[in-house]
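Input sequence (493 aa), recorded before submission:
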Amino acid sequence: MSYEPVIGLEIHAELQTRSKMFCSCPVVDPTTAEPNSAVCPVCAGMPGTLPVVNQKAVEFGIRVALSLDCEINSQSIFARKNYFYPDLPKGYQISQYDEPLARNGRIQIRTSRGERSIRVRRVHLEEDTGKLTHIEASPNSGKGIAGHTLIDLNRAGVPLLEIVSEPDIHTPEEARAYAEALQRILRYLGVNSGDMQKGVLRIEPNVSVRPAGSTGLGTRTEIKNLNSFRALERGIAYEIQRQIGILEGGGQVQQQTVGWDEGRQATFLQRVKEGEEDYRYFPEPDLPPLIVKEAWVEAIRAALPELPEAKRTRFLQTYQLREYDAEILVSERTTADYFEAVVQAAPEITPRMVANWITGELFGLMKETGGTLTRLRVRPESLAGLLTIVQAGEINTPTAKSVLAEMVQTGKTAESIVETRGLRQISDAGSIATLVTTVLQENPNEVSAFLDGKDGLLNWFFGQVMRAAHGKANPQVVREELTRQLASLREGE
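Predicted structure, token format:
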């Protein structure tokens, strides 16, 4: 029997607000801040404290929901999600469920199987949990000495946006494409850095399989807290095969929560999965309904930036780029902005040439130096200046690459580097004709061999002329003049 995977994704994105979801504690970098340094009675769950909703977090949530073509609910309800949370002191999470911030959206994805639209079930706000660090007992700590767990509440209460898809995904590749598309949108909107290694974006796929051609849903398992796209693909692929193996062996898949072991490349059981009723949702008594006015929604909509998919389409149509180049350039908003700034600064340069230099040579240098566009010392107008010099034939491509490398290191303009180092290319036809004549006169044996039919010596002569010109001669003019003079010698035989 053949099986069809059915996959839905829950993606948790921390919102880049300055303060937490329900209190004024600052949002700090969990990798650098002192543990438990951004904690107050509210996020520590002290009795008698009252939460207050962070307006900026709501605005960010609406911004994301609108970008996903969701319907914004004029009223949403915060609820208590009851569960044993060792990293949330109050023992429950304030979240949304029955009446979320938004619902019924979609994300467009492209895979090797074509383009598809994946439905978004809901977008809702909640608070993040703290962070637990488990330390195993040392082998030398003595009999009966157990390990211990450290808790850091800096992350507890940080605004979290959960985006839940419908079970419309059927391959690991589609799951990755969906997650990557959402990550790009979040970055374009400026609401989340997309840095999965820091845990600010976490993915939890729900995976099930069913007989091919059927419409029912199989029993699902949830893979918790994946923090890379590679783990997402591999974890889903493993779960699909594990579940198929169980069914083909006559067994039944259990609803459970599993983790992903990167070392073993396998999932492992964490707990039997709870149903929604186990969370005992009920409206948060300390928070009134969240009312969102239409005028505010429309103001947020009007301020939305051009999103990646729309920008990609425009780049293809306006600049006639290749699909690959357009995809690379729109992957980050800073990259797309940089590209357009260079194009605007050098209208005589074709956009394809600009794209080739950015995605090729410039990205290569940035990879070597570990730099980013936001810290790059080569401003768009400086790169435009370099390409203008190349287009005018004043320097050749190899020279231009060395000039760009120096620009990245020093921040100097191409013009100043070319002048200081005396790199300007010789394009004068008379000067190049003299160089070619000299080289041919100094190498009579090679000229005779060429005239006898060794056409491959043309490249050797080219190299000799370029050496005589210290690499500054225009290659195209050199080749044309060589061809002309050698043809003239053959005709004179």
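Checked by second reader. The radius of gyration is 31 Å.
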